[in-house]
Structure formats: C-alpha cells, structure tokens
Design brief:
The chain has 348 residues and is α/β, with parallel strands linked by helices. It is 27% helix and 23% strand. GO terms for molecular function: oxidoreductase activity, acting on NAD(P)H.
C-alpha cells in the first residue's frame, strides 16, 4: 500500500453512517493483480444494504462498489494476459483496495476481462456482479445454485432444450442476465415477470413470455400452465421479496428448486424434495471460483459476438458525489430496467 499517492474515494464513514468523498491511498498490484484507473462504476442494491445493515463489512471507513471498468495502469507479478493501457472490467470486492467507488482499484486477473471494441466503459460496468449472480444461481453445483451444466463447457449450449424455466424480476439486472444465460442453455419456454414496458426488451434477450409482475400467484400459475405442460423445476427469483418468493414457491414442482437473491422466507416442506436456495454472486468465494473462472475466460469473446449483451444504463452526474443520490434513488425503488453508473474521474 502506498502512503504517498492519494486518490479521491467515496467512503462509508461508519457502520450505518453516511457516504462522503474523501481520500484513500492508491494501492500497488500484487501477484496476479492489475491496478485499474476506474472510468466507470455501477451501483448495486448491496451498496445501500451494507450502509443500512452493516452486512459483509467489519472495518470503517470502507469503500464499496463491485462493478468496475477502466484501463490497466500497472500490472503485478505474474500477469501475462494484460498490459498497461488495456481497457478492462473486473468484479471488485468488499476491500478498500479492490472496490470501485474510487479512482483506482485493484482487479484479480481471474475475474478481469478485456472490453471488446464494440463496447464502452459504461457498458462493461453493468456486467460483473449481476452476471456472476445469475451464473452462480444457475450453475453452482455445491451451495448456491441449481447445479446445471454451464454453456461455456463442452456440450453446455442448448443442453436444456425443451425444459421450462421461470424468472421472477426479469427486468432487474440479475434477471436480465438469467434470461440471457437460460437462452444460451436452451431453456424453453423462458417465462419471466416484469412491468409490461419491458416486454420487448426482455424478449430481445431471450424471454419467450413476459407476464405482468403485479399479477397474483394464481393468475401467474394459470398462465404458465397455458405455456407449457412440463413441470416447473427451476424458478429463479431475482427480486426475492416475500411476495415474489410466495409466487415462485406456488408454481414450483414438488421436486423443483427455487433460487433466491435474498434469504428464504418460504418454508421448505419436511420430507419433500422441493427446496429454496439463496445464491451468492461473488466469484472470489471458494465455492464459486472455478465456475466463474470459466465464464470470465470466455466473456470478452461472448460480448464481442453479442452472445451476452450488457445492460441499459444511466450515467449519474458529479462523479463519486453522484453515487450518493443514485443509491437513494435505488432505495426508493425509482430505478427500473437499467443500471446506474458513475464516473469517478469526473469527481470535483
């Protein structure tokens, strides 16, 4: 850690405290790390949930932000596949050196990829946490997911042809990537819930049917029965509030699995095979490392080909300062069908 070179950073000053722009040291990259000059960082619900609850953090002041895009400023020992000046994006961590709400951050090379020429920094910043959360929920075989075969392994593309999947909250960031990965895996039909305004967009990502998210569980269940006669063994709830969990639980087959992005509020039936699992989208945890390494190894190629599409976004004003208002917008449920991104280098 350098004591001399300083950068602007958005700091959460204390547990349950306030965000404020201050200074943080610019770190030096270690083995298999790159130092990234951060041009774009995306906001996620977890950022304000850390402020509200204190989860995942035991030291303050802390820098948050997991979705990082920028240019390589320096490479650490053993780094061969990146060079200074490369445009890259990375999945950050809850660490003051590896978080994105600042002007420079470290990236672990296993979960860093080059930005293809057809995309910008803001496009790339919409990807890491939401895509990794989608992939771990679908493909983690141990703790955090359905345990399906991912489409980046041999024979994985199209493997689940003819199998239905239901995605609750398809217009959320995670839901949008679940739709895309489910499409790659061959699921059909791909049924999702969202506001009607997002129907055309979600169908462009691979959804076959979009149901109004305000419909009751009974109406959703009846509609699904009209789309497929096959049992619903896979439901991914990207919203995971108690009411959406109840919808997901009600449409699930007796041997099915409900994957959630928040803790389960539904009660598993004793002696029954139906289960609910909370996923965890960090590639840095040991249960996800190998799975996510496979995805990140092919990610640039898929983005260049349009196999995976980044999300729609809105740029916040005023650099790091703008993140504070952006998190308040998200907390008030005023953001729909897009990611909010900020430009740390524009901080005054």
């Amino acid at each position: 850690m350098s004591d001399t070179k300083q950068q602007k950073a958005l700091l959460l000053k204390s547990k349950h405290g306030q965000f404020a722009v201050g200074l943080n040291s610019i770190p030096k990259p270690g083995k298999d790390e790159v130092l990234i000059k951060v041009y774009s960082v995306a906001l996620n619900p977890i950022d304000y949930k850390v402020q509200e609850t204190g989860m995942f953090v035991d030291h303050y002041p802390v820098v948050l932000g997991e979705d990082i895009a920028g240019t390589v400023d320096e490479v650490g020992e053993g780094v061969l596949n990146f060079a200074k000046g490369d445009r890259v994006f990375t999945h950050g961590q809850f660490s003051n050196d590896k978080a994105g709400f600042q002007q420079f951050a470290l990236g672990v090379t296993d979960f860093t990829a080059k930005i293809p020429d057809n995309l910008g920094y803001d496009d790339a910043a919409t990807i890491p946490l939401a895509l990794d959360t989608a992939s771990t929920g679908l493909y983690n075989k141990t703790t955090y997911g359905f345990g399906l075969t991912p489409p980046w392994v041999k024979g994985g593309i199209g493997m689940y042809s003819g199998t239905p999947i239901v995605i609750l909250g398809g217009a959320s960031a995670v839901g949008s990537y679940v739709i895309q990965l489910a499409h790659l895996s061959g699921f059909s039909p791909i049924i999702t819930t969202a506001s009607p305004a997002h129907e055309v967009y979600l169908k462009s990502l691979g959804a076959t049917h979009v149901l109004n998210r305000h419909l009751s569980a009974d109406v959703v269940k009846a509609a699904i029965n009209g789309f497929t006669k096959n049992p619903i063994k896979y439901v991914y709830d990207a919203i995971a509030l108690s009411e959406t969990q109840q919808v997901g639980w009600s449409i699930l087959d007796a041997k099915g699995c409900l994957v959630l992005t928040l803790p389960a509020s539904v009660q598993e039936d004793e002696g029954k095979e139906r289960k609910a699992i909370m996923t965890f989208g960090s590639p840095h945890t040991k249960e996800n490392k190998e799975l996510c390494k496979g995805l990140w190894a092919i990610l640039s190629q898929w983005l260049e080909a349009g196999t995976i599409k980044p999300l729609r976004y809105e740029v916040l004003p005023d650099g790091l300062e703008g993140i504070i208002g952006g998190l308040e917008q998200m907390k008030a449920a005023k953001v729909s069908g897009k990611k909010l991104v900020a430009h740390p280098q524009d901080t005054k």
